[in-house]
Amino acid sequence: MKKSVYSALAIFLICINSFAGNPFPAGSTWDAFGDSITAGDILIDYFGLVRTATGWTGVNHGIGGSTAYRQGVQIYALSVGQSTLSSSFIGTNDTSFLTTTARETAWRRILEAEYIWLLTPTKSLGQALSVTGTWANSDINPSFGIKSATNGSTATASVSGSTVYVGFWATLNNAASVNVTIDSVDKGQFTPATLYTDSQSLSTAPFAIRISGLSSGTHTVVVTLTAANASTLYLDYITSNGNQLTGAGPVLYVLTPYLTASETIAQRNTVVSNIQIAVSEISSDGLGIQLVNVTDACEANCHNGDGIHPDAAGYQIIANAMLAAIANLWNPARSPAYCSNQLYSIEVMA
């Protein structure tokens, strides 16, 4: 008889909650976004295993077949605060669409927009911006976004920090371009990504511009619609890395997908490398993002007979990888082996 997974998980609860500075003790709410791998099996999933180990409560937002497009809709519906604790585990259903460099770049910018939303409690939302020209409430995000198809229309916000983020909602074949100035310095012209129709028949998604390397302090950001080109620009927010509440949160864990039977190693590497770049960029801005290397943890051992979805041992490996990341994030001075050796000692109940 193998050990009970619940008794073994007690080790993790002691390990994680003993870390000084962990702002997410037992009882914290975790919002997990992803596809069917996150949604899980009726009997076991990594979401449940991690919750048992940490004592967190939470909401599993996983939807079978979900893509970065669909995940964006879910994420933008979440009200983000300083205590927001979330995770993103997406990519398996996007692989076959990333066939060009332009599509890879667009997909990465979609991920960055989702990460930025989850990590910035303080945003100047579209409908709160100071505007000139012709704007109306967005019909995509009507509760906070704005839209314009008139050249010369401007939207302005004051933010504080060293990196500025401007969030749009991109649409299929959108050709509208904007110019961004910061403190009257021209930062260039940008065009929201030209998208493709994904496996869920969706063709709109969030998109973000990231402008880094600024001096720390307060900045005036002006977004000007310079070339509508018969397209409508959808503007959702302007924010920055320094415009956030003080403290340790919010925190986002980003899990990298493992190789499935329906894709090549090259396709998987493309997905993972773009996730790594997106996480690295946001992390360099000082926001609370942590990569969870499920790819290497799983190798070819996470999925069951269908070649895609995890079996019980696979879900355990994914949970272990996330628990190791949690442990290392909240006590980086401690050797990762302190907890990772224990994390990988869980056995599945027979």
Itemize the secondary structure elements and their pairings.
Elements: H1 5-17, E1 29-34, H2 36-39, H3 46-54, E2 57-60, H4 68-76, E3 85-89, H5 101-119, E4 124-125, E5 130-132, E6 136-137, E7 146-148, E8 154-160, E9 164-171, E10 177-182, E11 185-190, E12 204-211, E13 218-227, E14 233-240, E15 251-255, H6 265-284, E16 289-292, H7 294-298, H8 312-330, H9 337-343
Parallel strand pairs: 1-2, 1-3, 3-15, 15-16
Antiparallel strand pairs: 4-14, 5-8, 6-7, 7-14, 8-13, 9-12, 9-14, 10-11, 10-13
Helix pairs in contact: 1-3, 3-8, 4-5, 5-6
User: What's the total helix number?
Assistant: 9
Q: Sketch the topology as an H/E string, one letter per element.
A: HEHHEHEHEEEEEEEEEEEEHEHHH
CATH architecture of the largest domain: 3-Layer(aba) Sandwich
Please summarize the sheet with the most strands.
6 strands, antiparallel
Question: Residue share in helices?
Answer: 25-40%
Give your account of this protein's structure.
This protein is of the alpha+beta class. It folds into 2 domains: 193 residues, 3-Layer(aba) Sandwich (Rossmann fold), CATH 3.40.50; 117 residues, Sandwich (Jelly Rolls), CATH 2.60.120.260. Helix content is 30%, strand content 25%. It has 9 helices and 16 strands. Strands 4, 6, 7, 9, 12 and 14 form a 6-stranded antiparallel beta sheet that branches. It has a 5-stranded parallel beta sheet with strand order 2-1-3-15-16, sandwiched between helices. Helix 3 crosses helix 8 and helix 5 packs across helix 6.
List keywords for this structure.
350 residues, alpha+beta, Rossmann fold, Jelly Rolls, 2 domains, 6-stranded antiparallel β-sheet, 5-stranded parallel β-sheet, 16 strands, 30% helix, globular, disordered N terminus
